[in-house]
Give the backbone structure.
Amino acid sequence: MRHIALALSLLLVSGCSLSQKPGIPDTALPEHSGIQENEKLLLNDKWWENFHDKELDLFVKEALGNNSDLKIAALRTLRFREFLNIKKSEQLPTIDAYGSASKTQSYMVSFDRGFRYEQFDVGAMASYELDLWGRLKNTKMAAFEEMMRESYLKESIKQRIIADSIISYFGLKTNSSIYQISREQYLNEKAFYTYMKDQYKAGMIRESDLLQEESLVEMFYDQMIKQEDLLSSYKTAVGILLGKEPKEIYESRYDIKSARYSTNALPVPSNLPSDILQRRADIQAAEAKVRASAFQVSVAKSAFFPAISLSGTAGYVSGDLNRLFTPNNGTYSAGGNLLAPILDFGKIQADIEVTKIDQQIALLEYQDTVRKAFGEVRDALHTYAANKKRLHSQEKRHRAILKKKQSIEQQYRQGFANHLEFLEVRKEEFEVALSKESIKFETLKSAVELYVKLGGGFMAETKKKNSADSGE
């Protein structure tokens, strides 16, 4: 007995060494990382509310409620949660009820007669596997990390849907604004062309000037029709994003106010958060995959050790159904089973090597995800800063060209500027106005992308706590 106890002790000690450490490397953050206290409040669960647009809030809410990709991701997370429940239950004893009834007819030649007898039994059986090497525990932990990974992936999809809906909202505003500019410009030029025809009939201008005005009117008309078609296509795309019914998509009823944002009105963090690794759901998903792969290595190693299970039954057996549940007919049994590998031709070792390779792949994917994340944040910060400068410059340019247009128009009516100068300045003002709206949209878009690259409103510690509280 002493030798057996010693052997079991050695096995238990070796079993403790089965657990694999994920080996997630430390990440060196850039110097001066961290955002100001007032900017930390911007990275909240409903970060789109920082734009202070009630119409946008409803837009995002509708997108989150109807998007199919998010619903599919939620179902996948739920599926992995149920798989985790299965693995949890494997650590607990199983208790099953059983019952049987039989009637046997036999004939014995030596007695030259037949015999008939009946037997009834009922009871319960229980079985329990001793998890000495941590196989069941590690399997459960691997399932938990896989569930968390799916949860993080769902969060990434959610943040992407939020960003796409905000960009679509601002894009719809921008396209509506550009269409209105094109329409107003066309109507103004059409009215001026009517005035020029009267001037031509009165002999006040040349025919070439009138033909130039006609060409300009048709150019603005073409631009208006083009922008109207783009706006219609954008409305269709927005309807699909919001999960609208075909009838609603076909009607495309999205009439919203034009965008009015200055370069200084966008509340966006200006630096890298010091907890960026916790704020990126894709990084957390990659890290969960690394942890899951480590647990799978431990599960594969446990196959080298014997599986020990205990079992027992208790119930009643009787040949008479009426006397089945009497104390004299009680029966029970208890025992244990041991199953250990002897010769498997290298299968277990091959399984271990496969899981180790998966672990190495997961680790490389994690490192690649971290590198890409920091690169995306750097680019997003730079792009947003550049777009703010471009928008500020374009707004100044538009104000300047408007003054130039007013000045040349006044000079033209007084006869101090020729018709070609007046024609060109109107075309230039229109082009600059459209360019300003496009850059405004790019600035808004880069602000949204910066929020997403910083993790949006996601925080890993909060997610893990909520998972623990919900029994995940």
User: Anything to note?
Assistant: The chain has a mean pLDDT of 82.
